Amino acid sequence: MENGNSGDHAVDLFVIGGGINGCGIARDAAGRGLSVTLAEMGDLAQATSSSSTKLFHGGLRYLEYFEFRLVREALTEREVLLRAMPHISWPMRFVLPYHRDMRFEADTPTSRLLGVFMPWMKGRRPAWLIRLGLFLYDHLGGRKILPGTRTVDLTRDPAGSVLKDKFHKAYEYSDCWVEDSRLVVLNARDAEAHGARIMTRSRVVSAVVEDGLWTVQVEDADSGETRAIRAKMLVNAAGPWVGKVIRDTVHLDNGAGVRLVRGSHIVTRRLFDHDKCYFFQGTDGRIIFAIPYETDFTLIGTTDADHDDPDRSPVCTEAEQDYLISFASEYFKTPLSRDDVVWTYSGVRPLYDDGASSATAATRDYVLKLDESTGAPVLNVFGGKITTYRRLAESALEKIGPFFPGTGGRWTGGAALPGGDFPVDGVDRLIAELRAAYPFLDAFWARRLVRAYGTEAAEVLGDAGSAADLGRDFGATLTEREVRWLMDREYAVRAEDVVWRRSKLGLRMSAEQIAALDDWMQDARSNGQAAGE
């Protein structure tokens, strides 16, 4: 298998899309010995993959849609992923308050079934059914690390102190946090370490088959220059643009459809002092989460709304903000208002169009469609959850493998991502070691670095003996040396890549500080001082 990208050489795989699915597939394929080039038209994780609710979770509510395979696979993956990336993922406990007014969404299979056999429930979600769902949640995935469900007395437990007095009982269960955009970058880095070529800000403008090979024209976003890359197979992991690539780039007419669903979130000041999350159920059958976020904030989301155009940037509308504020205020003693909101974000999930009646009911399972009608194969990737990205990649390689005899077998299940080569319970030890080696770090700074870079945090800091040795201070503990690392190792080009995707320091930096960072990064690029130039 040739690892060339020009001339008469053809790479084995050309991956369109630098989100979690594209980078996960590129990593898996490169590790099996395939030559891989990936092109992303913007920054890695710039769209859907940096706009999630930041959870590795099985999808408790998907049980009501009888999506048992999806939930089982996701539950199993939680612990596989925890072991592979304990710096950017960690266990969390979720508190699900119960009250009699909870309702099903009307079109779930479970609600229809209970409507037939227990019509007197009138759409209510009974406590016994929630407990049954949590029992399945505890046992479907072969849980080993995470603790199981327990019942909580909210009149005594600290989790009840910020809730309205009408909530007396809750169920507490386990799921996991993940730094979603860092997950994407680390997969891209590991793909590159296995020989893949990662091209950001590189837009695919056309792909045609010539003599049994794809010729892909790629345009550089900065220079406007185009280059041709030949490939034996395409992987269309373009996320919200997957349908557009099918129609307008590779010109297929295979009938496969994508349903774009917008999910919006708000970030508020910190609403509670403990480290548990809340799973809130509405009287309309919908659910939202309220999650501790970046130490001093609370993340609340998400909404589900159809989105008509991938090129129209998703925003958290005023109506969505009001919906989330009102929803959360039904639970918290102190009502929320717009004044509590410090940031909003929104992303578009590219779900497979299964004909569901609502955005909420549309399947979250992934669908892989292989097409050979043009004379060379293309694999189109629909849907998926961030929790199951690794299994999606393995399923993709099952479809890709027959075109490349001799391809290696599965390998990612026990492989740590960069910086993740330490035990699940080893974060505090790493922080203590980092502070001992670099005494100028305070507790927040050290924890932030370990949670971002794991065992590589010391490489980021290098031989620094003081904060001054790290170069320019951009604010919020972000220094010149860290920015150089991000430009050289993690594909960062603009300030927004650094403060909203490689980190969330944008929550702590002023607009002036971010603008100054962007100017410095552009100067560094022009002067060839970063990104290995």
TrEMBL record:
A GO BP term here is: glycerol-3-phosphate catabolic process
State which Enzyme Commission number(s) the record gives. 1.1.5.3
Gene3D superfamilies on file: 6.10.250.1890, Alpha-glycerophosphate oxidase, cap domain (1.10.8.870), D-Amino Acid Oxidase, subunit A, domain 2 (3.30.9.10), FAD/NAD(P)-binding domain (3.50.50.60)
Catalytic reactions on record: a quinone + sn-glycerol 3-phosphate = dihydroxyacetone phosphate + a quinol
**GO CC terms for this protein?**
glycerol-3-phosphate dehydrogenase (FAD) complex
- Domain annotation FAD dependent oxidoreductase: ranges: 12-360
Q: The Alpha-glycerophosphate oxidase C-terminal domain covers which part of the protein?
A: 415-517
The cross-references to PROSITE patterns, in alphabetical order and at most eight, read:
FAD_G3PDH_1, FAD_G3PDH_2
- So which cofactors does this thing need? FAD
Q: Which enzyme type, at the first EC level?
A: oxidoreductase
Quote the InterPro entries the UniProt record gives.
DAO_C (IPR031656), DAO_C_sf (IPR038299), FAD-dep_OxRdtase (IPR006076), FAD/NAD-bd_sf (IPR036188), G3P_DH_FAD-dep (IPR000447)
GO MF assignments: glycerol-3-phosphate dehydrogenase (quinone) activity
Matches recorded under Pfam families: DAO, DAO_C
Query: Keywords for this entry?
Result: FAD, Flavoprotein, Oxidoreductase
- Family recorded in the similarity comment: Belongs to the FAD-dependent glycerol-3-phosphate dehydrogenase family.
- This chain's protein is named Glycerol-3-phosphate dehydrogenase
Q: Which organism is it from?
A: Thalassovita mangrovi
